Amino acid sequence: MRTPIINVMDRAARRAGRVLARDFSEVQHLQASRKGTQKFSRAALRKATEIIKYELTKARPSFNFLGEPIKPENLETKNEWIINPLDGTSNYAHGQPHFCISIAHIDDNDLKESIVYDPLGEEIFWAVKNTGAYLNDTRLRVSARSKPSESIIATFAQAGGKDENINDPKPIIEIVQNYGDIRISGSPSLDLAYLAAGRFDGCYYQGLLPENIVPGTLIVSEAGGLITDLSGKNNMSDSGEVIAANGELYEGLFNCIKSSNYSVSEDK
Q1: What average pLDDT does range 186-207 have in this prediction?
Q2: Domain regions of the chain by residue span
Q3: What sign results for the dihedral spanned by CA atoms 155, 254, 218, 234?
Q4: Rounded distance, CA 173 to CA 181, Å?
Q5: Which CATH class is domain 148-258?
Q6: Is the Cβ–Cβ distance between 116 and 134 less than 8 Å?
Q7: pLDDT per residue over 97-125, tens digit each?
Q8: Are 168 and 262 contacting, i.e. CB atoms less than 8 angstroms apart?
Q9: Which fold has domain 4-139?
Q10: How is residue 149 annotated by DSSP?
């Protein structure tokens, strides 16, 4: 059942999504231009960010935004937004149609609602804690695949990051050798939504920021998936690590990553 907060997030994401979708066609035309697309893409991101913040603040002025200064009048609130106005920025700048907007609502450190919106496909994945996950108005369930050889595992690779193991290829090599197929799509939030919809069967990430992780985690868990950090704990936001899969494949994927000699910090 949709909540008022879901409706607020939906409206904000759709308004920003129209801007991203409109400007994306121009980005595609600029691929052959010597001027490049970075400046145009940054402008689109800025506009989307402004729209989302405006819509969310208008609807819930007492809510704070993760990582931003807290207004004096909002010091007592326990409600917080986590937003990612464009998850898949490199895809967007290169004219690749795989990106999304993600928003989550946290109340007193408890993740309550989240959405992931694909503005090109006009698909909105959303979840309310203890209520379920949905694609538009259709209930979501993770896949029932149990054979690693028939599965698709999504992951993410980037230069830099906050994890010293971010460029360690061993876990990905281990997945390639033991699972059916691998996808590096460039949009972790959309990957997690696809996992919830049964389009992917597992996901593995390192070095991500909270806005890349948090909205999708609720959608996966409410769709029946299992999701933890690389220590098997619910500390994905702080660690930047994610292992997620359906119930049939999670344990095997977790052990596969561990067997790759990935160094998991004991204090995570």
Answers
A1: 96
A2: 4-139, 148-258
A3: negative
A4: 11
A5: alpha beta
A6: no
A7: 999 999 999 999 999 999 999 999 999 99
A8: yes
A9: Fructose-1,6-Bisphosphatase; Chain A, domain 1 (3.30.540)
A10: G
